[in-house]
UniProtKB/TrEMBL annotation:
The keyword Hydrolase applies. The lineage of its organism: Eukaryota, Fungi, Dikarya, Ascomycota, Pezizomycotina. The chain crosses the membrane at residues 204-223, 235-256. Residues 78-262 form the CAAX prenyl protease 1 N-terminal domain. It comes from the Eukaryota. This is CAAX prenyl protease. Zn(2+) binds at H335, H339, E414. Residues 265-469 form the Peptidase M48 domain.
Length: 496
């Protein structure tokens, strides 16, 4: 049970009625009947799940432990691939044996860390469940408010804000050993870490302060919507969450990222001219080109764009510029332009909205579930934030399925973006940049199919080169490139 991954939540509304009552009135007869049928199903499901002595605690514990065992099984499968002595045939000429051996060693180290850190997370989850930490912490934060806060801050919203913030701080403390080991031992050993201990601590303090500023109003609005709209909260909460997602996507690079990194305009020259020509040629609404000082924390790197549909900004990591030729950077950005041109970002946003609607609709089934609250020690009070945390954990098996499906779709989009760059004539440059980046970053060059299906949002290197119909030619990594102190990386939705 991922108690420590606190998510925003909703309060116990009046007796269950139609969560869609308001939208139904303005819809056609057919859609209204469909929504009423869905609402009737959700109410029946709510009654079925809210039964005395329903084994919620055992179920959620079983889900959590089962997921860890399954993911560990996948990691063991991947570990066998990481023990292979020779690179895949498609990389036999491009990647030296020394680079491949280092990549395999790095992958094995990360796999071992994955199992150990996952075990530590499970120990925390089991302890939190068995020791009834949630009700104890809810009571403790309530006592703090009663003793120190003015009377106007004694309501459920203030109590929930203090509870969530306390959990976030607790999460940082409990996860500090694994974070420190990952940064200063694992990443340091393979030459990727650039953080100093003071910068590490400063980042943690900044993150906590920013959370203290932004979390309270968001959580307060979240809870207030449910309190005001009662059992009709699903639609209104969905609209709020969608608007918040749009706002944060645009605002983060402008208001939050500068606390951690410096963005500087890309200097005039061949690189900037070619990027602008690429954007103009496809009517990409490029507003500004930036370089970000990613090297102050890590040798890993990427490139991404952000902004409103009519005003986009491209950000390139300084480490990417240092180790990649201009034409290869253009190929990388052509790949990113493919995501925009093919509507991948818009489609993924639409899917995320459908997922939010699905989550909030199911939450309406659990928000009054007294057996769920009682199973975790909340016998007389039913705080919305607690209900949402418990509901999120009960939903984890379905979330795992959705994650798998989204990864399949994401990998499809990556192949399509590669094909788009290939169609623009950048096949050789894109293949070269992929090989160089993976070699410099010691990224996994091959993967177990089951592990990749579950974990990877991007195809692994061998798959992408085969899709590009890349033929092995000659080594693209020099001795200088193999220096892991200069490693760079590209990963994630908006990255290569």
């Amino acid at each position: 049970m991922d108690f420590l991954q606190v998510r925003l939540a909703p309060p116990p509304p009046p007796p269950l009625r139609s969560n869609w009552a308001s939208p139904v009135a303005s819809r056609g007869r057919g859609s209204g009947i469909a929504l009423l049928t869905l609402d009737a199903f959700l109410q029946r499901l709510a009654r079925f799940l809210d039964r005395p002595l329903f084994p919620w605690k055992r179920l959620i514990l079983g889900f959590s432990i089962g997921q860890y065992l399954f993911e560990s099984f996948l990691t063991v499968r991947q570990y066998r691939v990481l023990q292979q002595p020779k690179p895949p045939a498609v990389l036999a000429k491009e990647v030296s044996q020394e680079t491949f051996d280092k990549s395999q060693a790095y992958g094995r180290a990360k796999a071992r860390f994955e199992i150990v850190s996952g075990l530590w997370a499970q120990v925390q989850n089991v302890a939190f469940i068995q020791l009834d930490v949630l009700p104890k912490m809810w009571s403790w934060t309530g006592d703090l408010l009663f003793k120190w806060a003015p009377a106007r801050f004694s309501g459920e919203i203030s109590h929930s804000i203090l509870f969530v913030f306390s959990f976030i701080v607790l999460q940082q403390v409990l996860n500090l050993p694994t974070r420190a080991y990952n940064t200063f031992v694992l990443e340091e050993k393979f030459g990727f870490n650039k953080q100093t201990p003071p910068l590490f601590v400063t980042d943690m303090i900044k993150t906590t302060l920013l959370t203290a500023v932004f979390m309270p109003p968001v959580l307060a609005a979240f809870l207030k919507i449910i309190q005001k709209t009662g059992t009709q909260f699903v639609f209104y909460l969905w609209i709020f969450a969608a608007g918040l997602q749009l706002f944060t996507t645009t605002a983060y690079p402008i208001f939050i990222q500068p606390f951690f990194n410096k963005l500087s305009p890309l200097e005039d020259g061949e690189r900037k001219t070619k990027v602008e020509e690429l954007a103009a040629g496809h009517k990409f609404p490029l507003q500004e080109l930036f370089i970000i000082d990613g090297s102050k924390r890590s040798a890993h790197s990427n490139a991404y764009f952000y902004g409103l549909p009519w005003k986009k900004h491209i950000v390139i990591y300084d480490t990417l510029i240092e180790k990649t030729e201009t034409q290869e950077i253009i190929a990388i950005l052509a790949h990113e332009l493919g995501h925009w041109k093919l509507g991948h970002t818009t489609r993924l946003f639409g899917i995320s909205q459908a997922h939010l609607l699905y989550v909030f609709s199911l939450f309406s089934v659990f928000i009054n579930n007294r057996s769920l609250y009682s199973a975790f020690g909340f016998h007389t009070t039913h705080p919305i934030i607690i209900g949402f945390i418990l509901f999120s954990d009960a939903l984890s098996p379905m979330d795992t399925v959705i994650k798998l499906l989204l990864n399949i779709l994401s990998r499809k989009f990556e192949f399509e973006a590669d094909d788009f760059a290939n169609g623009l004539g950048y096949r050789a440059e894109l293949a070269a940049s992929l090989i160089k980046l993976h070699a410099q970053n010691l990224s996994t060059m091959d993967a177990d199919w089951m592990y990749a299906s579950y974990h990877f949002s991007h195809p692994h290197l061998s798959e992408r080169l085969k899709a590009l119909d890349w033929k092995p030619k000659e080594a693209l990594t020099s001795e200088k490139d193999k220096d892991t102190d200069s490693a760079v990386k590209a990963s994630g939705r908006e990255e290569l």
